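Project outcomes to date are best conveyed with an example. Our students and postdoctoral researchers have been running inverse folding experiments weekly, and each run begins with a structure described purely in tokens. The record below, which covers 452 residues, was selected by the lab manager from last quarter's runs and is presented without edits.
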């Protein structure tokens, strides 16, 4: 595989005939196998992606070749021992087995590290595998996590039920806006991680990333941030976070056809997670398929364009909904409690994100609205997930937050009638808005929907 790049370009051709190399040279660089670029060189997501190493195909194609091999050969027997001892690694194109490192997946990891402005990244088979692996690497039995009350239902269930039962890891849930509560929940010497979403699922609460990181770091606690809802918009690592995780299945993929995740952070952490004896990624094996990595690598270059359009439409619709008297939640609106906080942290030009919420107060009203929007006016689809080119909508309390009990939903601020909408960009803005207006007007027609 031949390639070129702007920074940290390593040889991409498999050595022919001999694997003999300078041992001391490898002892230095193999520890930086997953480094993409010095974080100090990072300016903004789009610039970083443009500066990231570009892989060409084996025969000079503008797109890289897919390395579909599960296992890799060496030219000399001694080389394999040196690879397993950690002396030789993917920094110089030495690969052992694709559960460990794969060239195509490694290229996607470089793009993710560039996107988030971290030293390194590792791509996984799902967003939940990224979350669980990094938390298991940072926390041992008896460990403690402080986490936001408002999280994706699957993550909440992991922390509430699975970790205490299977790993003896406990979690204290806090209101992120109450910084004193966060500070008091951290137990010096026991708490290992402060975990939260940069923009919460589904309530769209925006975390004060710099201040939360300061509180955690003052007590020696690592900060892990889920940035699934706000790629390009926010860059948590540039605001102080130690680790950024993603469900790449969402905005980054954009096609609602791939399940994938990523862990972005220091090279030392990612390398420790690949340790043969103690590494959560190495031993749990949430491996990404090389063909999936190739498809995702082709989509990341236009992520910025997509995020701008998602955000522009979400802001436009939320303003119009507000004027109609709809109870809409969107951090781009000035009356949103976190609007100015988000504005102060956000990367310029990417807006305020592609998600908004409409609070219909009851699940019955929420379901009627979604039925009208999908089945009568064709505004969008009733489906979970986000980042698709069509608008996707779901009643969070009975879907993606259903793992939470009634009290937990109240504490998280999740109304029974909260409809989460991932705003798409297909069709014209006016066409889609007219579809929304027609659906809403039918809600007020008592002959069509008699009140119970």
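After processing, the design step wrote out the following sequence:
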């Amino acid at each position: 595989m031949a390639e070129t790049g702007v920074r940290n370009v390593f040889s991409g051709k498999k050595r022919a005939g001999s694997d003999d190399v300078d041992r001391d040279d490898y002892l230095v660089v193999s520890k930086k196998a997953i480094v993409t670029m010095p974080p100090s060189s990072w300016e903004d997501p789009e610039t970083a992606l443009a500066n990231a190493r570009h892989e060409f195909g084996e025969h000079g194609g503008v797109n890289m070749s897919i390395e579909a091999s599960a296992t890799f050969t060496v030219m000399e027997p001694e080389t394999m021992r040196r690879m397993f001892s950690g002396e030789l690694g993917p920094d110089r194109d030495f690969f052992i087995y694709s559960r460990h490192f794969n060239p195509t997946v490694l290229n996607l990891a470089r793009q993710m590290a560039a996107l988030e402005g971290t030293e390194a990244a590792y791509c996984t088979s799902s967003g939940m595998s990224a979350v669980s692996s990094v938390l298991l690497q940072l926390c041992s039995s008896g460990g403690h996590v402080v986490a936001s009350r408002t999280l994706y239902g699957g993550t909440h269930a992991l922390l509430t039920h699975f970790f205490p039962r299977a790993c003896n890891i406990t979690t204290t849930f806090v209101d992120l806006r109450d910084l004193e509560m966060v500070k008091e929940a951290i137990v010096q010497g026991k708490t290992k991680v402060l975990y939260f979403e940069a923009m919460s699922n589904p309530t769209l609460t925006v975390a004060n990333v710099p201040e939360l990181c300061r509180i955690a770091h003052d007590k020696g606690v690592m900060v892990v941030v889920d940035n699934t809802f706000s790629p390009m918009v926010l860059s948590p690592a540039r605001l102080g976070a130690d680790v950024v995780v993603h469900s790449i299945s969402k905005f980054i993929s954009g096609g609602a056809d791939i399940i994938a995740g990523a862990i972005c952070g220091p090279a030392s952490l990612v390398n420790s997670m690949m340790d043969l004896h103690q590494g959560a990624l190495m031993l749990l094996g949430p491996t990404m398929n090389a063909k999936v990595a190739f498809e995702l690598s082709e989509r990341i270059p236009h992520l910025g364009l997509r995020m701008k359009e998602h955000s522009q439409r979400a802001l436009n619709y939320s303003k119009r909904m507000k004027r109609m008297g709809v109870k809409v939640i969107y951090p781009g609106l000035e009356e949103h409690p976190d609007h100015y906080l988000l504005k102060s942290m956000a990367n310029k030009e990417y807006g305020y994100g592609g998600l908004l919420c409409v609070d219909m107060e009851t699940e019955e009203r929420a379901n009627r609205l979604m039925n009208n929007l999908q089945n009568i006016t064709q505004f969008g689809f009733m489906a979970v997930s986000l980042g698709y080119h069509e608008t996707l909508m779901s009643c969070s309390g009975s879907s993606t937050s259903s793992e939470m009990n009634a009290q937990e939903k109240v504490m998280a601020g999740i109304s029974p009638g909260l409809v989460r909408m991932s705003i798409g960009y297909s069709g014209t803005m006016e066409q889609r808005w007219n579809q929304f207006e027609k659906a809403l007007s039918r809600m007020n027609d008592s002959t069509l929907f008699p009140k119970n």
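The two ends are 66 Å apart (CA to CA). Confidence is low (pLDDT under 50) at residues 1-17, 21-33, 446-452. The training component of this project remains on track.
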